[in-house]
Amino acid sequence: MVQQAQHSWYFVCTGNICRSAFAEAYLQRLFNGVAAVHSGGTGVNQALAPTEEIKTLAARQGLSLDEHTPRFIEGEELKAHDIVLTATVAHRAQVLAEAPTLLNRVFTIKEFAQLLPQIDVEEIHQEDPSKWWRATARKASQLRSRVNAPDNDLDIVDPFKKDMDVYIASTQEIMEALDIIANVEHMRASRA
């Protein structure tokens, strides 16, 4: 049974045909309907669709990107989401240029996954899941200086027009990070 969405997430990359499209589909499956998950790109070419490589890797995870259509990011839409996760530090900067009020709710995918284990999620007292995730994001934002990695280590490699090995590495990085986020969501939901 699919539940009603209780919180919302937005993924950003460049073309919205590889990294953010895959992340959207993967997190939707992990959250099984408890979250609304969307994605967009900073430099979308709407004539393009997800690549065959990313569709193949998605299918290996039981996901389909056949119906995915690339979309441009829009500031107002971004603001409506509880957390915005970007593929790279440069994308994070572009999101903040579009919607500066998101400062405490926008992270790279890898950055947020590195910060979550440093937060005592038991201390976040919010019954509403949307408010809980926003409070968690605020706490993560306060801890940003603890991420001990150069900016390029916070980026998910762009596989577009590269070998399948790069696609595999990119999706592996995404899945590892999103699995951490999903584990925190399952912990939060079990306490509710």
Number of domains: 1
Our measurement of the CA-to-CA distance between the termini, rounded to an integer number of angstroms, reads 18 Å
Share of helical residues: 40-55%
CATH architecture: 3-Layer(aba) Sandwich
Overall residue-averaged pLDDT value: 93
Order of neighbouring strands in the sheet with most strands: 2-1-3-4
Oligomer: single chain
SS-based structural class?
A: alpha/beta
Largest sheet: 4 strands, parallel
Low-confidence stretches: none
| Spatial extent as radius of gyration | 16 Å
**What is the string of helix and strand elements?**
EHEHHEHEHHH
CATH topology tier name: Rossmann fold
Please give a structural write-up.
The protein is an alpha/beta fold and 192 residues long. The chain has one domain: Response regulator (Rossmann fold, 3-Layer(aba) Sandwich), CATH 3.40.50. The protein has 7 helices and 4 strands, in the order βαβααβαβααα. The chain has a 4-stranded parallel beta sheet with strand order 2-1-3-4, sandwiched between helices. β1, α1 and β2 (35-41) form a beta-alpha-beta unit. α1 (19-31) runs parallel beside α7 and α5 (109-115) packs across α7. The longest helix has 28 residues, at 164-191. The chain is globular and about 45 Å long. This is Phosphotyrosine protein phosphatase I domain-containing protein.
